[in-house]
Design brief:
32 strands; alpha+beta; Neutral Protease, domain 2; 625 residues; 8-stranded mixed sheet; Immunoglobulin-like; binds zinc ion; 6-stranded mixed sheet; 14 helices
């Protein structure tokens, strides 16, 4: 709405101003920029932590018991929470993700039919205490507010004890769950919510589509399961002599020193538990320790083949049921992923990496991935490699997945294209990714990359395009614009700078612009906050001979509102010439021309050719004589 006095002024302006100058002065909305918070002492203008950057820390000691017959998991835990913020905290928030799996949960209402809504899960919280004193607490859906006995001053630490249990859902929203006696256990213990300089307490509920935002810390975990079960988990097993046979320990030692795949437990052994377990009676307790991680996940079952190998001292494990035959390559695929991403970004820092097959399509936790049986080799690689890429984003670079899915899913999907080109040299993952994006946006109402994960419509490809595929198209295009070497070095610098920290989108934008030497406000805004598309076309070509050379004038038309610089190349035989029209040439206009010089008349002219550029209509990017 426009106020009447303003309208009168506008009419006067329109009738007196000359039309052409009005057009030239108008703001070109294609050059809008994201509205970023100002840099401050916590986060610098160069996309690095500021001098006063802080984040909280949460260490966990957990003792848990799985009762497969009852289908329940129960535990007692102590969270040691360190307040490194400048604020005094009277209360803390703790995440109770299992509360998604009750029929009345907000997630069950938001996404009916999804999220295991029909299951009778949810936490039973039996005790919340500190130093022997019961603490008042209230539970709101998947969040619990705990009143501290004394306010927690800056620099202070509080230990919070919680006793809990829940029934393990069969379908745990594709993040955890069970298939008979095979259990994948994640989001299984009360976890500290993040308190940060951006949002204070991060208390967005767990609805199912938005993943997590968690603090870093150390974990000491004791897991009691039937003696016939094997366990795979985050971290390093502390008591192998108590839970493994001498042969298995010897096999694991062999696996750690070589690069071949060693069979720790074979399919043939599974029919007789006594052949591969130290005892088959009662329970055994497996103890794990993990340092500097944001979460802990594990799996347990009585029918698991166990392969082991190593990468640069990191123990690699693959645990799978014998029917999942493609999984015999899972350990080798895992080694490829650790090797590739370590070289591309920063070396994998953890002592173990365990891939576990089960009733979850694909999900990542520190040092652990859950992946479905996947009968086809290439499909298994796609999911495994994606989940291992998540060890860098968001396991090391600890972004807020509940708000910004693209910051982990999108950057990961982008890297997966580079990794797959090596493992499957005959594949063309960049072409597939761009084609999938270009096809999908024709058939559904697209939502911007920057949408909250739980805002994406559960039907259709919304989250898949918006958080995974399109951000990968965007980053592949930026790599073309910036040059591969500098882009790769800058992305690695971002990973190194923000590992074990909590970067925001603004930190990512600033870090990339700082390293690439590019002002990319228009780029981030259009790619991430709008659904505009990129469609450059060659509108006209004019060639003339001037002083023994050929001058080639190429007119480029930006048919989409998502602008890109135009890299124009003219070739004739072996002669070639390239000119890039900067995006600023298109301010206020769709068209600009490039002039190239060749010794002979050009036969072929292209603009932003190839799926790397992310142009949705590549046919009009090529001109031939
Ligand atoms: Zn993912």
């Amino acid at each position: 709405m426009l106020h009447r006095s303003l309208r009168a002024a506008l009419v006067l302006f329109l009738t007196t101003a000359a039309a052409p100058s009005f057009a030239q002065d108008a703001f070109d909305a294609r050059f809008a920029r994201p509205d970023l918070p100002d840099p401050n002492e916590y986060r610098s203008a160069s996309g690095r932590p500021g001098p006063a950057y802080w984040q909280q820390r949460a260490d966990y000691e957990i003792r848990a018991t799985l009762d497969p017959a009852a289908g329940t998991l129960s535990g007692e835990q102590t969270i040691t929470y360190a307040n490194r913020s400048p604020d005094t905290l009277a209360f803390v928030w703790i995440q109770l993700d299992q509360n998604l799996f009750t029929s009345g949960s907000e997630g069950a209402q938001a996404f009916p039919g999804d999220a295991g809504a029909a299951s009778d899960g949810g936490f039973e919280i039996r005790r919340v205490a500190s130093g022997g004193t019961e603490l008042g607490h209230r539970i709101r859906d998947t969040q619990m507010r705990v009143e501290l006995a004394q306010p927690l001053a800056p620099g202070g630490t509080v230990a919070i004890d919680i006793d809990w249990s829940f029934r393990v859902p069969e379908d745990g929203a594709q993040r955890m769950g069970r298939d008979g006696d095979h259990f994948l256990l994640a989001q299984w213990y009360p976890r500290m919510a993040v308190y940060d300089d951006l949002n204070g307490w991060n208390t967005m509920p767990y609805l199912g589509q938005g993943e997590f935002y968690l603090e870093y810390g150390d974990f000491d975990v004791a897991l009691t399961v039937p003696a016939t079960y094997l366990v795979g988990a985050t971290g390093t097993l502390q008591n192998p002599a108590e839970v493994l046979t001498a042969e298995q320990r010897a096999a694991l030692d062999r696996a750690r020193t070589g690069s071949e795949v060693v069979h720790v437990v074979t399919a043939a052994e599974l029919s007789d538990p006594a052949s591969f377990r130290p005892t088959t009676q009662g329970t055994l307790t497996w103890r794990f320790r993990a340092e500097n991680v944001r979460d802990f996940a594990w799996a347990a079952g009585p029918r698991l083949v166990w392969d082991a190998t190593a990468w640069e001292g990191t123990a690699i494990h693959a645990l799978y049921r014998p029917e999942a035959t493609a999984w015999s390559e899972a350990a080798a695929m895992t080694r490829h992923s650790l090797d590739f991403y370590s070289g591309y970004l920063i070396p994998y820092p953890y002592p173990s990496a365990t891939a576990i097959e089960g009733p979850v399509f694909g999900m990542e936790y520190p040092m652990v991935v859950f992946v479905a049986p996947e009968p086809l080799r290439e499909d298994l690689f796609d999911v495994l490699d994606h989940e291992w890429g998540h060890m860098w984003f968001p396991m090391m670079v600890g972004t807020d997945e509940r708000r910004h899915a693209w910051m982990d899913e999108g950057i990961d999907t982008f890297m997966n294209l580079l990794s797959k080109e090596i493992y499957f040299p005959e594949s063309d993952p960049v072409l597939e990714n761009t084609a999938q994006y270009a096809a999908a946006i024709l058939s559904y109402r697209e939502q911007p990359i920057g949408s909250l994960p739980d805002e994406f419509a559960p039907e259709g490809p919304g989250l898949g395009i918006g958080a995974y595929i399109k951000p990968a198209v965007m980053l592949t295009a930026l790599r073309e614009l910036a040059g591969h070497e500098l882009f790769d070095a800058t992305l690695a610098s971002y990973a190194r700078t923000w590992a074990w920290r909590h970067p925001s989108p603004a930190d990512f934008y600033r870090h990339m612009e700082d390293g690439l030497g590019m002002e990319l406000g228009w780029f981030w805004y259009n790619w991430i906050e709008t659904t505009q598309t990129q469609d450059l076309a060659i509108l006209g070509v004019d060639q003339s001979e001037v002083g023994g050379e050929w001058q080639v004038t190429v007119t480029i038309d930006q048919r989409g509102r998502l602008l890109m610089p135009a890299a124009v190349t003219a070739t004739s035989g072996t002669a070639t010439s390239t000119v890039t029209i900067p995006v600023e040439a298109f301010y206020g206009t769709d068209r600009a021309t490039a002039t190239l010089t060749l010794p002979v008349r050009a036969d072929r002219i292209v603009v932003n050719e190839g799926p790397e550029w992310g142009d949705i209509n590549p046919q009009n990017n090529v001109w031939t004589r």
